[in-house]
Amino acid sequence: MSAIDWFPSAKWGVGLEINPIYVEPARAKIEDSENFKVLCRSFFDFDWRQLLGALPDPLLVIGNPPWVTNSALGDLKSSNLPVKNNFDEMRGLDALTGKSNFDISEWMLISICDWLHNRNGTLAMLCKAAVARKIFQRVSKAQQGIKSFSLYFVDAPKHFGAAVEACFLIIEFEPGKICKRAAAYESMAAVRPARTFAYENDLLVGDAEAYELVKHLSGPCAYQWRSGVKHDCAAVMEVYAEDGRYRNGLGETFDLEETFLYPILKSSEVASGLCASSRKVIITQRTVGEPTERIRTLAPRTWEYLAAHTLLLDARRSRIYNDKPSYSIFGIGSYSFSPWKVAISGLYKKLAFSLVAPSQGRPIMLDDTVYFLSFQSRVEAESVLHLLNSDLAKDFFNTQIFWDAKRPITSDILGRLNIDRLATELGTVIERPADVRVETPVEILLPLFA
Hints:
By secondary structure, the protein is an alpha+beta fold. The chain has helices spanning 2-6, 20-28, 48-53, 70-75, 92-96, 104-116, 129-142, 156-160, 208-214, 234-237, 267-271, 294-298, 300-308, 310-314, 378-388, 391-398, 411-414, 419-425, 442-445; strands spanning 13-17, 36-40, 59-63, 121-128, 146-154, 166-173, 181-185, 195-200, 203-205, 226-227, 238-242, 245-248, 253-254, 261-265, 279-282, 340-345, 354-356, 365-366, 370-375. It contains 19 helices and 19 strands.
């Protein structure tokens, strides 16, 4: 109702609220007229196009959408959810895993932007900064008639008790306009933007001016960044050596063969610079989808152990395990067994690459929140490690990493740096042994067999 007070010249106003407890007090604050209404309805089943189509320009859509994800509301058994669809057009595995989880406000803001397309109007919403950036990327890519795009950061912990970076998002719509820059202000009181986001060449960057200085380093990377092993059942799949036996996360001890056991480093350990761990993981496959029956023959005690925990392993919630061999894992391939790796945690807010060396003659595995490059040669791994930890590489990555994101560092961002160009810029040469070839990405190999 404050919006009506701030815009006394407004001739029409409609408020929508799903909770009836809040509807009546809101209705009491406005005069009962046909032009100003408060409706008790869900955002997701209301005909917004019909309402907005009946109103003249300019339009103002203002609000504070929920700061929760679709999966969080699903866990709460909430019915106030959008119809499920792959609106970000994710492919294959991404659409079945955590990458397909999204903020409800993201879906709502995308819908509002679609409704305001080819209209004169303004969207003004409180939302997570991460959501605002996704909206900017989407409307810029679609060239959606945007005149200006601004973010005013707010102190969410202070004002809302929410431990998240938030902003007041303002988008001005005007037919025919194309906006490729977003002004980011440090506070609501700021008169000049602290930095400017940009969307160019299908890339979202957090500091347009800084990116201009390093964008020549962009390009296809000769190496392919990978993520570590995904098994979704640490209590069973990860064990510790104890008095000649192995103890799992359930406190149980078993005799297991070494055949399928490999040392593993977690994301926190990689971020701390650790290069060894007493933890081991059961690697049931060498490639995704490989039959696991061979474990029964090669390591019968390990097979019995897995069989004893079938209920827990079958209860893994992710759909990626559906119709796969028993005890399947993901994020596994020939690269996983390379002896040398250069790794970085995707969860921690620092750019620090580490060398991961083999342990007791076995390659060290990494968990699925770690990204890494694989090498057969120590000298090549150390050469690339030196380049990635250079100030120039950090400057490049910092223009594209948004540190408030849940997983700020991603394989997509890492793969944008052309490491060979970086080496040339720094006047060095990557020491690649003559008999060791750079791993060719699967995407390049597949057409050869089509």
